Amino acid sequence: MNELLFWIFFNLFVLLVLLLDLGVFRRGSRKITLRGALTWSAVWISLTAGFAVLLYFWHGPKSVLEFATGYVIETSLSVDNLFVFLLIFRYFRVPAAHQHKVLIWGILGAVIMRVLFILAGVRLLEKFEWVIYVFGALLIYSGIRLFIHDESKTDPGKNPLLRLARKLLPVIDDYEGDKFFVRRGRLFATPLLLVLVAIETTDVLFATDSIPAVLAVTRDVIVVYAANIFAILGLRSMYFALAGMLERFAYLHYGLSAILIFVGGKMLASHYFEIPTFLALGGVAIILVVSVLASLMRPQKQAL
After folding, report:
1. Which residues pair with 181 in a beta bridge?
2. What's the average model confidence in pLDDT over 276-303?
3. Backbone φ and ψ of 36, nearest 5°
4. What are phi and psi of 274, to 5 degrees?
5. Which three-class secondary structure state does DSSP give residue 60?
6. What pTM did the predictor assign?
7. Overall number of domains in the chain
């Protein structure tokens, strides 16, 4: 398959799915049920597996392993986004029926930003090889920061872009259905637009960690981009599937911290010792499973 055709058809596929989800499957505002969220999660996992099969016949098993590793890293780091999404929705008291629309538009913005981040990251690594040390150090710093301070407990009201938006835009006090703007003599923003600003800002911050993490596995732009996009597209349904039990994962941010430090160390050592991709995938999976199991066991111990 020609790479230009891949970019055209893959991005058309992403755009089509988002438009269908926003305009057809979720027409009108209604709460996403657990059954619907699990169904969509299964759909995204199936599409991801289907892409891996396509990639196997197109680029071979090495690219599939890199894609799987990148996807697992992206998905695991995206779980931290879910905590922040939950915090933002609670802070703004967003009705459950309107959360889906915010996440869909947030995902659309995230797709655009990820393309720019990935292209810039790959270009920097190709032109300045020493940037790999900067990315590695950034990942280790982010991992240590996450270990010391759980970012899911950050106050959304302190977001500087959110404060700027409040100063620049006239905002009404109450929600107007799922509208971002409403006309009352003149155009006003609704609180839902502020929620979208907070979601988009959060994704920019998380992209500074997740993009270098996948670039530590491979510099194949197609693999990095596809792993990012499939993880992002599955993020919305994952949120609605796990929203009711997110707070049970008390130790998950320690696992995510370990993943960032592990991948950052892999990046720093890449010129001296190359960790095979299958070992990196196994290491990330083990860290993730241990942190999740420890979190799930914690309430049982407290109850006893």
Report:
1. 189
2. 80
3. -65, -40
4. -95, 115
5. coil
6. 0.82
7. 1
